[in-house]
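User: Here's a protein and a ligand (dtdp-4-keto-L-rhamnose). What would the complex look like?
Assistant: Let me lay out the input and then the predicted complex.
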Amino acid sequence: MEFHLTKLRDVHLIQLEPARDDRGFFARTFCVEEFAAHGLETNFPQHSISFSARKGTLRGMHYQLEPHSEAKLVRCTQGVILDVIIDIRPDSPTYRCWQEFELSSANRRQLYIPKGFAHGFQTLSDDVEVNYLISTPYAPQLARGIRYDDPAFGISWPQPVTQVSEKDLRWPDFP
Ligand SMILES: Cc1cn([C@H]2C[C@H](O)[C@@H](COP(=O)(O)OP(=O)(O)O[C@H]3O[C@@H](C)C(=O)[C@@H](O)[C@H]3O)O2)c(=O)[nH]c1=O
C-alpha cells in the first residue's frame, strides 16, 4: 500500500499496490505491520457496510464523543462517492478545516480517518456500497453530527441532495 499524507493532519489516502498477472491482481487492503509503521490504528473490531440506492444520497457528517471516538478506514467498493471529513480536534493545526476525496470502485482508494474527525459522503452514482473498518464499538448515545450544509464549513456538495436521513437534517449548528 502507498500511504499519502493529505492537507489535514494525520489523515492518509491509501493507494493499493496491486500484484498483477494474467488473472487480474491481488492487493492488500489492510496490514497490521504497515499501518503500525505509519503510526495508524491497527485494531478494528467493527467492519460495516452501507448501501445507498440513489445518486445524490448524503450521509453524515458523523462522529462519536470520547471515550468512543472512532478511527475509520473507508473504501467505496461499488459506485463513486465524494467523501468529506472535517477536523474537529481543537488542538490540531488543521482544526475546522475540511477536505474532500473521490473514492470509487474504480480507483480503489482508501481513506484513513483518525479519531477526532466528522465524516460524511455524497453518492455520485446509483447503487453505492461503502465499506468501513472502525476502531471503536458503536455507541448511539455518544453519536453526534454536523449538518451537511452547516454554514460554519460551507461544504460544496457536487449533486443536489436526493436522500438524507431525518437525523442528519437535525444536527445543530456547529459551535
Ligand atoms: C453507524 C451504525 C449504525 N447502526 C444502526 C443505527 C440505525 O438503526 C442504522 C442506520 O444508522 P445511521 O443512520 O447512523 O447510518 P449512516 O448514516 O450510514 O451512518 C454512517 O455514516 C457514515 C457517514 C459514517 O461515517 C459511519 O461511521 C456511520 O456513522 O444502523 C448500527 O447498528 N451500528 C453502527 O455502527
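Summary: Residues 44-169 form a domain with the Jelly Rolls fold (CATH 2.60.120.10).
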